[in-house]
Amino acid sequence: MTDRNDALNLDREDKLAPLRDEFRLREGLIYLDGNSLGPMQACVAQRVQQCLEKEWAQDLIASWNTAGWYRLPQTVGAKIASLVGAGADDVAVTDSTSVNLFKVLAAAISMCPDRRVIVSERSNFPTDLYIAEGLAEFAGKGHELRLIDSTDELAGAIDADVAAVMLTHVNYRTGEVHDMPDVTRRAHEAGAVMVWDLAHSAGALPVDLAGADADFAIGCGYKYLNGGPGAPAFVYVAPRLQADVSQPLSGWFGHRAPFEMKPSFEAATTIHRFLTGTPPVLSLVALDAALDIWDRVSMEEIREKSVKLCELFIELVETRCGGHGLSLASPRDTARRGSQVCFAHADAFPIMQALIARGVVGDFRAPDILRFGFAPLYVRFADVYDAVEHLRDILDTQEWRQERFMVKGAVT
Ligand SMILES: *Cc1c(COP(=O)(O)O)cnc(C)c1O
């Protein structure tokens, strides 16, 4: 890559390029933060408007049947299932990622009543660790978390005391990818249950939950799936487990027949068992509409472009921003990296603020990470080129040292 024209040529050859037109991204914005909050598509606004004006305002309660509200957790689940290698009936969309994790992890440890250890990583996303801590305490049987500090420690950590292995497939900070089939097999060989968090995987790279024989998985609706702020999350349960495992948030939507209004709980024998209460219909229709774009693209095409975008970014940063103290914090090996690239820098926070001020939106992750997400549905090769030029300029001129870039908001 020698100049911007090369990037423009890559965009001209890119078969996914027209998909960007579906997104309402303002002119001049370089959005490399779809792994925190995916942008909005025009069809989502239309669908939510229809739900408000027709389904809710006019048809009111009839819409539970006539507009398919009641089935949304399944119909939206089926769309996500096709992106993560799951059967259409094995994914439900409900609650938040954190709450779904509580449910599946509780189900997992209940399957191994004689074991007391939950294995995870210290570098896992905090909510995953917090939920596991809370569950361990609530279970009241002396469960403990065993946290590893690198993937190499994983094999040694999974022994006969382990009830569940709970890992995030793509690390939220570094983008490092676990070998899902291999880790799942190790967990099963040790007699443990495998729980995967797909927050940074669904819509980012091919995933084959069924092929890996995963037991449970959860994931996020508002990152690469573009479902909108606080979009409901998904939960996968292997079909071989659905009729038997129980989860503790046994609300009426998880009942075998919610509208029989029975005084005691009798769990559904399907993925419905992992629902709890009334689903958030407005958020579900937004996610439902956001997912239609995936009919027009395969995960293989997504991955191919994602790899090219990430490799271009690394090459340009390393050749153009040398001597400024940036070091690659993501795996260099493409096969071990998700759809994001991170660089570490002692002044990562003000540097990211300076980038954002120029319309290049990535994010800062404590303590020293500049994180850039590359969502192939709408990120262009020219965006990658321009983002690196802004970064180079900010570093060369030391623009980031300005006082205004030091101020931290509540959400970073
Ligand atoms: C984003 C993310 C979550 C988000 O959980 P919420 O309940 O939606 O706040 C959970 N786990 C991981 C690994 C994430 O990256």
TrEMBL record:
Annotated residues for binding of pyridoxal 5'-phosphate: T97, S98, F125, P126, T127, D128, T168, D197, H200, Y222, W252, T278
Pathway info: Amino-acid degradation; L-kynurenine degradation; L-alanine and anthranilate from L-kynurenine: step 1/1; Cofactor biosynthesis; NAD(+) biosynthesis; quinolinate from L-kynurenine: step 2/3
EC number(s) reported in the record: 3.7.1.3
Keyword Amino-acid biosynthesis: no
One GO MF term attached to the UniProt entry: kynureninase activity
Top-level taxon in the UniProt lineage: Bacteria
Keywords: Hydrolase, Pyridine nucleotide biosynthesis, Pyridoxal phosphate
Gene3D superfamilies: Aspartate Aminotransferase, domain 1 (3.90.1150.10), Type I PLP-dependent aspartate aminotransferase-like (Major domain) (3.40.640.10)
Modified residues (N6-(pyridoxal phosphate)lysine): K223
SUPFAM superfamilies xref list: PLP-dependent transferases
Known cofactor(s): pyridoxal 5'-phosphate
Recorded catalytic activity of this chain's protein: 3-hydroxy-L-kynurenine + H2O = 3-hydroxyanthranilate + L-alanine + H(+); L-kynurenine + H2O = anthranilate + L-alanine + H(+)
Role of this protein: Catalyzes the cleavage of L-kynurenine (L-Kyn) and L-3-hydroxykynurenine (L-3OHKyn) into anthranilic acid (AA) and 3-hydroxyanthranilic acid (3-OHAA), respectively.
NCBIfam families associated with the record: kynureninase (TIGR01814)
Oligomeric and partner information: Homodimer.
Family: Belongs to the kynureninase family.
Name this polypeptide is given: Kynureninase
Organism this protein belongs to: Hoeflea poritis
